[in-house]
Amino acid sequence: RTRRGTLSAVAESPRSADVVWAGSDDGFVWVTTDGGATWKNVTDKLTAAGLPGPRHVASIEPSRAKDGRCYVAFDAHRSDDDRPYLFATDDHGATWTAIAANLPAFGSTRVLREDLVNPNLLYVGTEFGAWASIDRGGRWAKLGGGLPTVAVHEFAQPTTASELVAGTHGR
Question: Is residue 31 helix, strand or coil?
Answer without folding.
Answer: strand
